[in-house]
Design a protein that fits this description.
Elements lengths: L3 H11 L4 H8 L3 H9 L9 H13 L6 H7 L5 E6 L5 H16 L3 E6 L4 H13 L5 E4 L11 E4 L8 E6 L1 H14 L5 E6 L4 H17 L8 E4 L6 H13 L6 E3 L3 H13 L9 E6 L12 E4 L2 H18 L6 E4 L2 E3 L10
Parallel strand pairs: 1-2, 1-3, 3-4, 4-5, 5-11, 6-7, 6-8, 8-9, 9-10
Antiparallel strand pairs: 10-12
């Protein structure tokens, strides 16, 4: 049978023992306990008997130092807050993979949160992560208007926010590569997929598309713009947009899809309508997801080096934290265009 004294001790050990717990147990201040256990300069003013009592009480109460609290006092946590719109799609997960790869090399940790375009949640996350002791932020495909409280790197569309570095794909070059490829194959009637500009990436992409088309002499006809209902990558979204474009009974020989997933979905709709890809209609994607080369036919697409973008974002932020160097406003990453079997000459 457990004695009352042991029962009291067991109950005491079940709760978290803090510096304040020890201080109340001995009738001294928490500052005195902290100075003694951390052997700080202030401990020189504490008598030897008091130090011995504090150390003995810490052992008796099974005190375990809070490493996180100690790092906060030292103003270093080696933790980065990563804020992203989504984590389950290829875009977000690839960038996070690059971020994690670099942070692990530098012995940093990350706290990752997902806001799903909820502005209130986004605002709360910045405050919450700062309170958790992060030393900086990496925001992926996220729109904000106010300067974040800590050093921040954006990955996605360019946002003109003071103190922030933007790591972005060269969307103008990416779109020019895709449309130049179609024009060289003889395509003049091109259909496009568009999403609502929820994110900096989608807005930057569409702006670049309009500029590149005008430069190359490709007319963007409003009736040949298919509106995706969501920026989320789904096969069904691309399939439905392609069906809607076909139902308008307007002639087009190529489709520039919003991303690879929507491009693959559109190919299914074209085949159901009796059209061959690329003999009757060419399809171009965007991203170069791992399965793009294994579809039937293989997908011609813009390759985004997303893992590389994540690594550069993490490196840029860590360098600012460690060295306090001058901030660079924009870091632009070059895309590639990968030619596969989904594009061919315009049908005669």
């Amino acid at each position: 049978m457990t004695s009352p004294a042991n029962s009291k001790t067991g109950s005491r050990h079940q709760r978290t023992v803090t510096l304040k717990t020890i201080a109340e147990h001995l009738g001294v201040t928490a500052a005195t306990v902290s100075a003694t256990l951390n052997n700080s300069a202030a401990a020189r003013c504490i008598s030897a008997p008091t130090k011995q009592r504090i150390i003995a009480a810490a052992r008796e109460l099974d005190y375990k130092p809070n490493f996180f609290a100690q790092t906060l006092r030292g103003r270093r946590t080696h933790i980065i807050g990563v804020i992203t719109e989504r984590i389950e799609d290829f875009y977000g997960s690839s960038i996070i993979s690059g971020i994690e790869e670099y942070l692990q090399q530098k012995n940093y940790f990350s706290l990752i949160v997902v806001h799903r375009r909820d502005p209130q949640l986004l605002h709360t996350y910045f405050q919450l992560l700062e309170a958790r002791g992060v030393e900086g932020f990496i925001a992926i495909d996220t729109s904000i208007e106010q300067k974040p409280p800590l050093s921040t790197v954006f990955v996605g569309g360019r946002l003109r926010v003071n103190g922030v570095t933007n790591v972005t794909l060269d969307h103008k070059r990416a779109v020019r590569l895709a449309l130049r490829h179609l024009k060289d194959l003889g395509h003049k009637q091109v259909a496009f997929m568009q999403v609502h500009p929820h994110s900096p990436t989608s807005a930057a992409r569409w702006s670049a598309t309009c500029q590149a088309a005008a430069h190359l002499g490709i007319e963007i006809q409003p009736a040949l713009i298919g509106q995706l209902e969501s920026a989320d990558s789904t096969l069904a979204g691309g399939y439905l947009v392609a069906k809607q474009l076909l139902e308008r009974k307007l002639s087009f020989t190529a489709l520039f899809a919003y991303n690879d997933i929507s491009a693959i979905g559109s190919i299914r709709a074209f085949r159901e309508a009796g059209l061959r890809v690329p003999q009757d209609i060419s399809v171009v994607g965007f991203d170069d997801i791992p399965g793009a080369g294994f579809t039937n036919p293989g997908l011609s697409t813009v390759r985004q080096p997303l893992v590389k973008m994540g690594r550069i974002a993490a490196q840029t932020l860590v360098d600012r934290i460690e060295c306090g160097g001058k901030r660079v406003r924009d870091i632009t990453i070059e895309p590639e265009f990968v030619v596969r079997q989904s594009t061919g000459p315009v049908p005669s």
